[in-house]
Structures are given as C-alpha cells and as structure tokens.
Design a protein that fits this description.
Layout: H1 15-19, H2 23-37, H3 47-125, H4 136-147, H5 156-167, H6 172-183, H7 186-190, H8 204-210
Helix pairs in contact: 2-3, 6-8
Length: 225
C-alpha cells in the first residue's frame, strides 16, 4: 500500500466468489489480502486461494492508481491555491502602499493649496508698502556697475540685514543716498571702492553715517530699489 494510505476497499460484487470458497480458504484469503495491502508481499502455492485473490488484487491496484492520481491532483491544486493567495496578498499590499502614497501626496497638495490661499489673502488684503519690496537683483546690478565691482550674488545674510533695516524704519532712499555719498567720497575713491560691498550698505551704522551727509551734486546713482 502507498505511504500514508490507511484504508482499502473490498467490493460487494466479490461476495459471490468468496461464498463459493470453503470457510477455511475464505479465512486465509482475507489474511492474504491484508498482507498484500500492507506490503508484506505474501506468496502461496494454494491454487484455489490464488485464483480467488487475482481479481481482488487487480481491483486493489486500480484503486491505488486512482488514489495516487487524486493525491497528485490535490497537491497541484493546493500549490496553485497557495500561489494565488500569495499573489493576492502582494496585490493587496501594493494597493495599500499606493493608497498611502496617494494620501501623502494629496495631503501635501492640500497643504500647499492652503498655504497659497493664505498668502494670496494676505497679499490681497494688505497692500505692500514701497519699502517692503526690495529688488536685490537691481541692487546688485547697480552696485557692480557704479562701483566697478563684480559680485555674483547677494547672500542670504545680507538680504536678511537689508530687510531688517527696512523694518527698523530705514528706507530704500536711505540706501540710495548712502550709495551716492560713498560713490563721491574721496576716501572710497582712493580705496577703489573696496569697502562698497552688498553687505556694507545693509548695516545700520553705515546707513547712519553715509545717508545723512549733504547730498552730492555729482555722479548721483540712478536707481529704483
């Protein structure tokens, strides 16, 4: 008998054959059948027993073959089912991850939209003063042109300092006046305007010193900041 197979079938249509056997032969036939299905390979020289056992043996072999085919089919089906469940789980995880990403992106988008709305409302309801808008590109361009310098950028530190001056009630005109006065100063001319940097005109002490002196009559800086 095959491994893990714990039962076998004796068919009722064998009863006619068994009934024709003497009781002692029928008893030995039953023992012979059990020995066979338990892989004991029984052998007997008893002709009557062999004749009675042969059709039963053929049926047992056919049943065993069917059982093995069924077992194989169930194994294949089980593997297919397990693979289907694995793929379904992967698909579910992929969908969950995709949903989480979309949720994060949506939240990020909503946050951006809300920020824009708030900024727009503030801008629309609170008109900017002239001194609140400072063109750093024009500031850098004019400084390079008038003082023959070649600065590439206005760094963040300088930008913050200029914005701080404007909040402290200094004006863009104060910066323009300071640049005009430095441009016509003999001290700065003789030093090749080396001190006239973007950071130089962002300092409160410089604006206090150079924007309040009498306005120069020559080489006035033509600039709108």
């Amino acid at each position: 008998m095959a491994e893990n197979k714990k039962s076998f079938v004796l068919y009722s249509d064998s009863q006619g054959l068994v009934n024709q056997l003497p009781d002692d032969v029928a008893g030995r036939l039953l023992k012979h059948i059990y020995a066979y299905v338990n892989d004991e390979n029984p052998i007997t020289d008893e002709l009557l027993l062999n004749i009675a056992f042969e059709p039963i043996k053929m049926q047992l072999k056919r049943d065993l073959q069917k059982w093995e085919q069924t077992k194989e089919g169930r194994s294949v089906a089980g593997k297919a089912s397990a693979e289907a469940k694995r793929l379904a789980k992967l698909a579910e995880q992929s969908l969950t991850n995709s949903t989480n990403v979309e949720s994060v992106e949506q939240n990020s988008t909503n946050s951006t939209v809300n920020d824009n709305v708030n900024v727009n409302v503030i801008n629309n309801n609170t008109p900017a003063k002239a001194d609140d808008v400072f063109d750093f590109s024009k500031y850098l361009e004019t400084l390079n042109q008038k003082f023959s310098r070649s600065f590439k950028v206005v760094n963040e530190k300088t930008k913050k300092q200029i914005k701080a001056r404007l909040k402290e009630k200094y004006t863009k005109q104060d910066i323009i006046d300071a640049m005009n006065n430095c441009l016509n100063s003999d001290f700065h001319k003789n030093n090749g305007y080396q001190y006239c940097t973007p950071e130089f005109f962002s300092r409160a002490d410089i604006l206090d010193r150079w924007s309040d002196i009498s306005k120069p009559k020559e080489q006035k800086v033509n600039i709108e900041l």
